[in-house]
Each structure stands twice: as C-alpha cells, then as structure tokens.
Design brief:
The chain has helices at residues 17-25, 58-66, 86-94, 105-114, 129-139, 144-158, 173-189; strands at residues 6-10, 32-34, 37-39, 53-55, 70-77, 80-85, 98-103, 119-125, 166-169. The chain is α/β, with parallel strands linked by helices. The longest helix has 17 residues, at 173-189.
Length: 197
C-alpha cells in the first residue's frame, strides 16, 4: 500500500465543505491535492470538466462500475451517479501528495472503511437545517423541488455525523477553517501504522 494520507470532507449540500476544502488546498505545507470525482450529471453553473468533476455519461459510469474502477461510487439520485476512480487517487499519490476529498457522506464513510489507518474523515455540520435551506436558496442554482430533495437528504446525512472521526460545526467560517487546518495538519504529521503496508 503506497501513497500519502486520505482526507475526507463530507457534509450535506450547502454546509460549506467546498469552501473549507478550497482553503486547505491553498495551505502549501499540507501538500494536498484534490481528488476530482466522476459524475453522470450535467455541469452546473461554471463547473469545469476535469477540475470540478469528470463529467461522463451514465453508460460510461456503469461501464466503470462493471470494471471495478471505483474506490467508491453511489447513485445519489436516480441515474445521478458519483464516484472516485482508483486511478485518480493513484495519480495523486504518484505525485507524492496527500489526497483530499469533497464527497458525499456515503462515499466518505466507504473510503474510511477501506483505508481506516490512512483516512481522516471530517463531517461538516451546518448550524441548522433552516440555515442550510437559506444557503441553498441563495445559491440560485437549483429549483425549489431540488432544494427540498437536498433538505430531506440532509436530515438523513446529519444522522451519520457520529460515524466520522471529527465533526466541525460551520456556524463561524473563520473558526471552521482554523479547526479544519489544525485537524488535517495534526493527522498528516502522524505516522501511519497500517496493517496494509
């Protein structure tokens, strides 16, 4: 088992995990690289292929599933797949990087289960579901129906928070960024005593 550490950030949509992950990527001493997920959904807003996600067809996605190409994958909504390719993680490890994920709760827990010693899993919690709804509405990227779907899903996701190594409540962004940075720096500096190596 080669490679650096795996840092997983999971949260309901609108919790601010992407903001936290972007902040961490800018901290050079952490030596982080972003694992770009694969999705079968269409790009939203100004999302770029290969940067935000690898956008592929549902058929291509299913082919990768059959070939066991994924470290983890999930059908988040009907015919709306997300996953992490083994090849993406190996590519970043080959560059000598620690890999950071901005990923769905189920995917985050799957990675932790596969590599328990190498993975730090962090759950970013919004101050409340009401606050989450406000944040999603302010994005203006989705219909009310889609937002309601995300809110329903968020309640289920928030119940999984205790399964993560750490929970960061994002009610004060500056404090959340600082807490995330301390957690990740501490984890990266630890020796990995892994049975897999």
């Amino acid at each position: 088992m080669k490679g650096g550490k795996l840092i997983v950030f999971s949260a309901p949509s609108g919790s601010g995990k992407t903001t936290i992950v972007r902040h961490l990527l800018a901290q050079e001493p952490l030596n982080l690289a972003f694992s770009v997920s694969v999705t079968s959904r269409a790009p939203r807003g100004d999302e770029k292929d290969g940067e935000d996600y690898y956008f592929i067809s549902t058929e291509e996605f299913k082919k990768h599933i059959r070939n066991n190409d994924f470290l983890e994958w999930e059908e988040v909504y009907r015919d709306n797949f997300y996953g992490t390719l083994h090849s993406e993680v190996n590519r970043l490890w080959d560059e000598g990087k620690n890999v950071i994920f901005d990923i769905d709760v189920v995917g985050g827990l799957r990675i932790k289960k596969k590599y328990p010693e190498k993975t730090l899993s962090v759950f970013v919690e919004p101050p409340s579901v009401d606050e989450l709804k406000i944040r999603l509405k302010n994005r203006k990227t989705e219909s009310d129906e889609k937002i309601d779907m995300r809110i329903a899903k968020a309640s289920i996701e928030m119940a999984t928070a205790p399964q993560f190594d750490h929970i960061i409540v994002n009610d004060n962004l500056e404090k959340a960024l600082e807490e995330a940075e301390d957690l990740v720096a501490g984890f990266i500096s630890e020796e990995t005593h892994s049975e897999e190596e």
